[in-house]
Amino acid sequence: MKKNRQYSLLIIPALIVSLAFFLLPMAKLVWLSLAEQHGISYWYILTKPMYLKSLWSTFLLSAVVTIASLVIATIVGLFLTRYEFKGKSVLVAMLSFPLVFPGVVIGFFVIMLAGRQGLFAELGLALTGERWTLAYSISGLFIGYLYFSIPRVVLTVMGAAEKLDHNLIEAGRSLGANRWQLLRDVTLPALTPGLISSGSICFATSMGAFGTAFTLATNLNVLPMTIYTEFTLNANFAMAAALSLILGFITWLCLTIARRQGGSSLGMGG
Amino acid sequence: MKNASTSVAITLKQVQKTFSDGTLALKPLDLHIEKGEILVLLGPSGCGKTTTLRLIAGLEFCDQGGQILFGERDVTNVAIEQRRVGMVFQSYALFPNMNVSENIAYGLRVRGESKELKEKKVQEMLELFDLEPYAHRGIDQLSGGQRQRVALARAIITEPEVLLLDEPLSALDALLKKRLRTDINALLKRLGITAVYVTHDQEEAMAMGDRIAILDRGEIAQIGTAEEVYLSPKSEFVANFIGQMNHFDGLLNGQALSFRSNFIPLPETLYSTYKEGERIRCMTRPEDVRLTSFEDATLKGAVSHSVFLGDRTRVLVSVEGVKELVHVDCFERKRYSKGDRVGLVIPPLCLVLLPNLGSEEVVC
Amino acid sequence: MKKGMYFYLQLAFTLLVCAFLIVPIFMSITAGLTNNYFVGVKSGLTLRWVEQVWTLYSDTIWLTMEIALVTTLVNLCVGVPCAYYLARTRSKLSAFLDECLTLPIAIPGMAIALGLISVYGGISEFRMSWLFILVGHVIFTLPFMVKSVLAVLQSINFRVLEEGAASLGASFWQRFFHVIVPNCKTGIVSGILMTLTLSAGEFNLTWMLHTPLTKTLPVGLADSYASMRLEVSSAYTLIFLGMILPLLIAAQWLNRKPKRTA
Q1: Are C61 and C215 in contact (CB under 8 A)?
Q2: Residue of C152, C167, C174, C176 for testing the chain B interface, max B β-carbons within 10 Å
Q3: Mean pLDDT, to the nearest integer, of C114-133?
Q4: pLDDT tens across C79-104, in order?
Q5: Domain for residue A1, yes or no?
Q6: Which of A116, B3, B45, B344 has the lowest tally of Cβ within 10 angstroms?
Q7: Which residues contact A187 (CB under 8 A, 6 or more apart)?
Q8: Which SUPFAM superfamilies match (chain B) (predicted)?
């Protein structure tokens, strides 16, 4: 409305908060990472095996977790949208609760499942006479990451599958396609944008997950742990800044991809 | 309700609207709406009718140089909340967070009126619109027609100077539409309120207004009573937009319009403004054409096909020298089949000739 | 469709996945209430561990609640107007602001924390107070509040509702509080629940921002996982779950309710 820009005032609080406590700190971080010897930290990251290995292993772990979650979630998600049965809503609720559990708690759950006194250890003792202890190795991280990824992807798959045009399936069946052909030619292509979007969110969350790794304190240094160590033990602020900016850039890229695919970017730290 | 006392005339002087992207939505417009008059703005989508309404409402502001007056009050730069208008929106814009009574009372609430006055007036409105049983219902529990009535009640409870209605019936089904437009018309007349009514439905326009303004590409093509715009359209656009027209293009030959072997005799009032041999176009409504025997007629053709419409039969006749099929409404119970040779008679008074705007206007 | 072999295979798989997600929760609940977890439930049930957690960590619980509530309050005052502005404006500036506000979701909490420390770490009054954590939580949760309200605004035709109110003489602020805010209620409530849940469980940022005197519940949890016996850790986790489960159930219930149409 002409001469009536009152509503522009409404953005001011958000603008102040965002500028003072987000943009300014981010800018300072960029400046810090570049200030010390013209950004030597970035050079170290690319050349020193310690950092490179941390970057690569985080990347690989996240990729494997993403693929595994996508497969599991597609099966579960399609099942839950396709059939109606008693207790279905309970299952859906169970699948969505862990969405907001913090990483530390998930780390603890992994210990409960696969720690020295965990469920798997008891199971192994009963079956083979030796305790299966996975929690403190890369498998423990994998279990933990899977734990916070599955709910995210399942919910997205269900959302996408509900929007699926049922006529497509019926058309496919009328043309004589069998179950697997339908899945390959109709269902999966229709789910692809949702899968890409939730996969990206899942990947980004895994890359940035700190709490789980922190609790499990594995020998494997995932990127957030490396950043933490650089900052607290080595007091190398420039390196910590550079690493976290690289990490931030990767996760931002993933979430941009997710948003392009129309997914909500509501990922949360694991 | 005595709205007549608060109602005012509306005057638009050189009101023009350019949108921020540079498109000219409304060419400079002069318009005067009498106190208590109902003016219908009619036109196809994008013709500027809604823009005109929103300018009067104060939801948009006109370009520099334009002026809008409510009575003597210059409201050109006054925002809608201070204009004292009542408005009924196409989607009704009822507040989902309030029930029927609260919606109706809202205009009084923001004015800080007393509780007693609010209750009294809301009660009046509920009675006037037969909404009493629904007073405490939520908006989502109402039918389309009920919502429409709530919207109208909410708009007039504050006794606005001007009532603006933006396609208020377009969301309703055809039968309800017909009934409501009569009701609304009667109500507005009874209240004596100045009203501007936007619609794209020509039938609704003819049923509603004192005057109809037909808009075309951002300007008024014609303004007048329903009879005026229907019987003597001033342009092709108006003629074609309101009702249906048959077109005959030909040359003025003596006192008749002739094409190939056919001719239509013209009355003197029509042909006297044209020169002999000039190309002219004349038009006539399907219900004004009569079918006669082939032999005696000056205008002859063959039936292409016919459609039975219940109260009449629409016969489409192909006439030599006329590009489009001639539509004829036949009210007798008589069957025509393809190939029947028929004569057409058009009473001279039922012919419409457009004012001579230059020969390039008519393309044969 | 007939419930054939594939149905039961898929059901079994789904149940397995659910078990994977739910079993650890039950394990930690039982562990927190068992006398001696290594012996098993037969050692007897007790509230001893919960009491012990309460004496050791009750301050973290109070602080977490305080921070979560204040964060929510700040989000309401900052996020709701912001969502309205973003819904209403379509300019380059608003697109940029939208991006800036969404970015904290994408940037790992670690990076935000480092940034905050690098800028404000020197101001020790601020650094030492719980307000430092509050700031981090607001930055992290604000996008969720904004997005949640924005989604509702974009699904209702609020411009027309506002025009309707304006035509009846309502001023800008009357329109905002009478029409906009009440009609965003579902978005605001789900934003509140989201903020409370996320703030209560936030660890990545908080671990970097906390001081020994400003420990929140998740920080305490990490602490107990590293140094306490399993039963204490479990009891502590149990308290945490007890705090956030009502919020989660409320959120579920809210989403299940059919949305009112405008």
Answers
A1: no
A2: C167
A3: 89
A4: 999 999 999 887 788 888 888 888 88
A5: no
A6: B45
A7: A78, A161, A164, A169
A8: MOP-like, P-loop containing nucleoside triphosphate hydrolases
